[in-house]
Amino acid sequence: MRKGCKDYCLSFSNMLQTRYREMPEPKFMYGSHYSSPGYVLFYLVRVAPEYMLCLQNGKFDHADRMFNSIAETWKNCLDGATDFKELIPEFYENDSSFLINSLKLELGKRQGGKMVDHVELPPWASDPDDFLQKSQNALESQYVSEHLHEWIDLVFGYKQKGSEAIAAHNVFHPLTYEGGVDLNSIMDPNEKVALLTQILEFGQTPKQLFTTPHPRRIIPKFKSLSRASSHNVSIAESPVSPSEESFEDLTEESITLAWNNIAKLKLDEQYKIHKEEITGIAVPCNGTSVFTTSQDSTLKMFSKDSKTLQRSVSFSNMALSSCLILPGDTTVISSSWDNHIYFYSVAFGRRQDTLMGHDDAVSKICWHDNCLYSASWDSTVKVWRCVPTEVLGTKRHHFELLAELEHDVSVNTINLNAANAMLVSGTKEGTISIWDVTTATMLHQLSCHSGTVYDAAFSPDSRHLLSTGEDGYFKVIDVQTGMLISSMASEQPQRCFKWDGHTVLSGSQSGELLVWDLLAGKVNERIKGHTGAVTCMWMNEQCSSIITGGEDKQIMFWKLQY
How far is CA 126 from CA 37, 132, 377, 450, in A? Predict the structure, then answer.
């Protein structure tokens, strides 16, 4: 066996060599088995004649213990108490010679009278090269990517030792564990040599790296359209006709198409409508007008059809920090640095209500199902039940405080996940917290950034969380485990962003819009935008229309070029 291969096996795969064989099943297995028409990928043989010669004092092993058949060895590993073979890297490379007795070596005769020769392949492999190709395909499959973290848990993670290892049938000889034996304490030289020989020949378990479940890989899932597809692909080219798809399917297709073309974003129109930087953008369902808030303390209504400023409202002399439109498009809510939240009636053109909700500036608001979520520099996020005036039949809303989520420092941003069951909050000191809003309990808290968290948002499937901060980093968090799984540096802080779980469109401190490939950790496109920081970003549900607001007091309308 080549030294590199041998070293690889000893360092990476030796844990199966000396395991206790008290297991009713293999520690890691995918799919079917090597004797079936379907094929699998993992868990089998780590034997080559050269290495066996090393272990057998220069002689080949007994013919019935040789590596004769993939299916037979698989079965022995599965059911036997003494067979500890596993796969070597050659099973996923392009040289199939290790499966062929090309030198016509005399390897002995088995009890049944059959001579040991080429390795017998599974019925689904036409020849050794086909076997390797299918093994490679299986290794690179979506299924393996989705379950890779389970293998990490067993080999390097929390299931390597203790009760979790016992429950997973992942138990090994005590000598194989790190720290399992103190060689310096053994005075008998013969005993020490014997232990060293066992460790050198059969290896040790790897160092335990993780004590909590390892998060899954970030794997984008798409239906008909692939990220590898051309940017020119259109809905008409989809193999499924629109008439056969549901409205949800078509929406998903249009979203995928939009993100496939996000790098082709082009500036359509731009307007300077405020006197200070823009802090929030809200658009009604019909898309005919745009509401914006600014540090100039005004809420403005801009008509996209007539391209004119139609309304300008000032609630106080302090900055407004964000805005949103309630379902029905009749009420706009604005948060302010004066600690208040203002309700503005679009129909009547006046302030409808004021919620004196916090003891310091309100930094961000969200809304779902008659509940208002407000973040503040007073170190809290509050959840309010707001019964609208049209429901009560009165002139004012009714506010009921449902929960108060306490933080140690000022909260700068919040966001809800797609199911509206979780909330993320980001503070001015770089802390990210994930909350279960149904029970008002904190699920996870991490110190992610040095400095203010500018923006944070869940992926569409709610499996991951992306945040960006004053330190110029993107951070990806696994929502289930609360583990930080990725950190990506940018040249300068990214103030706001939208993402689909794979691709990120961010607004930079310099005014550029950047398109990021999150998995590759690189910028795919730089789009010239504002003069000064991009401070807020709005995207429609189909991800096809984008509006940005900037430090330059402008709003910019962007179009996708399909």
Answer: 12, 11, 67, 57
Quick one: 113 exposed, middle or buried, by C-beta within 10 A (0-12, 13-18, 19+)? exposed
d(CA 216, CA 367): 30
Q: How many CB atoms lie within 10 A of CB 440?
A: 14
CA distance 466 to 458: 6
Give phi and psi for 339, each to the nearest 5.
Answer: 80, 0
What are residue 308's phi and psi, to 5 degrees? -130, 155
Output DSSP code: residue 91. Answer: G
Instruction: Give CATH for domain 3-202.
Output: 1.10.1540.10
Start-end ranges of CATH 2.130.10.10 in the chain? 253-560
d(CA 334, CA 322): 6
Rounded CA gap, 479 and 466, in Å? 10
Rounded CA separation 133/151 (Å)? 22
Residue at token pair 């900055």: 319
Q: Region 223-248: what's the mean pLDDT?
A: 38
Q: Judge residue 102's burial from the number of C-beta atoms within 10 Å of its C-beta, 0-12 exposed, 13-18 middle, 19 or more buried.
A: exposed
Cα gap 358→375, rounded to integer Å:
9
d(CA 460, CA 501): 7
Q: Mapping DSSP to helix (H, G, I), strand (E, B) and coil, where does residue 391 land? A: helix
Q: Which residues, 6+ apart, have CB-to-CB distance to 225 below 8 Å?
A: 233, 238, 253, 256, 257, 260
179 contact partners, CB below 8 Å, separation of at least 6: none
Q: What is the pLDDT of residue 59?
A: 66
CA dist., res. 552 & res. 531, Å (int): 6
Residue 309 Cα to chain centre, angstroms: 41
Q: Residue 389 to residues 195, 352, 354, 367, 508: CA-CA distances in angstroms?
A: 80, 9, 13, 16, 40
Q: So what's the pLDDT on residue 201?
A: 67
Instruction: List, edge to edge, every strand of the sheet that includes 320-325.
Output: 320-325, 331-336, 340-345, 350-356
Q: What is the pLDDT of residues 318-339, one digit of tens each?
A: 999 999 999 999 999 999 999 9
Q: Tell me the pLDDT tens digit for each residue of 511-552.
A: 999 999 988 889 999 999 999 999 999 999 989 899 999 999
Q: Which helix (H) or strand (E) holds 251?
A: helix 247-260
What is the C-alpha to C-alpha distance for residues 386 and 245, in angstroms, rounded to an integer?
Answer: 37
Taking only the tens place, the pLDDT of each residue in 150-209 is: 989 998 899 998 889 888 888 877 777 877 777 788 888 888 888 777 777 666 788 888
**Whether the Cβ atoms of residue 546 and residue 539 lie closer than 8 Å to each other:** yes
Q: Residues spanned by CATH 1.10.1540.10 within the chain?
A: 3-202
Tell me, which fold does domain 253-560 have in CATH?
Methylamine Dehydrogenase; Chain H (2.130.10)
Q: What is the pLDDT of residue 482?
A: 93
Looking at 370-518, list the stretches that DSSP marks H as alpha helix, in order from N- to C-terminal side.
389-392
d(CA 406, CA 5) in angstroms, rounded, equals 54
